[in-house]
Every structure is written in C-alpha cells, then in structure tokens.
C-alpha cells in the first residue's frame, strides 16, 4: 500500500487489534487491511470534497493523483477550505472506526 498524505492522521488501534487477532493467515490479514484502507480512503476523500469548493475539485484531484504522498496537500486544503482539515480527517477516521467496530461486534443472525 502506498503512502498517502493523510496517513499520519489515521489511528485505528482497535481495528488493528481485531484484525491481528481475527485473521487466520497473513493473506486474510492483508485482505482485511486492504478493505479497511479502501473504506477509509473513500470516506476521507468524500469528506474533503464536501468541504472543498466544487471549482477546486479537479485541481485537487489532479494534485493528489500526481503525488498522493505529498503532505503539502494538507496546507492546500486548509487554504482552499478555510478549515482545519487535519481535525476534520481525524474526526472522520474516529467516526468510521466506531462504525466498523459496531459492525464487527454486532451479533450475527
């Protein structure tokens, strides 16, 4: 998995614990992490695009595509949204972790 500019903001210790203890093989662990990463990525990009003025969407997506790891995207987003984008990303990840944990802990039928 490649590095993305917001990776340093993602702390999902409970999910990590569950995956480490639930996965029976390294392949299964890798597949679970791939799913979690995809979910996180889509939710964060959705949240960013909801905050970013629509006229800036294409510009941001082009910048992101060229250098997904570039942490200067944070500064760009803060400038264009006028919001603390790190705080928004952390909040979204926290909410998403709660959602995922509730799904994992939900009684099966």
Any chance you could write out the topology, listing elements then pairs?
Blueprint: H1 13-22, H2 26-51, H3 57-66, H4 72-81, H5 85-105
Helix pairs in contact: 2-5
Structure description:
It is a single chain. With 109 residues, the protein is mainly α. The protein has one domain. Helix content is 71%, strand content 0%. It contains five helices and no strands. α2 packs across α5. The chain starts with 12 loop residues before the first helix and ends with a helix. The model has no long low-confidence stretch (mean pLDDT 92).
Largest sheet, strands/sense/barrel: none
**Helicity range of the residues?**
over 70%
Strand runs, count = 0
The rounded distance between the terminal residues' Cα atoms is: 34 Å
Series of secondary-structure elements, N-terminal to C-terminal: HHHHH
Instruction: Indicate the mean pLDDT.
Output: 92
Radius of gyration: 16 Å
Strand content: under 5%
Compact description:
With 109 residues, this protein is mostly helical. 71% of the residues lie in helices and 0% in strands.
List keywords for this structure.
single chain, 109 residues, mainly alpha, 5 helices
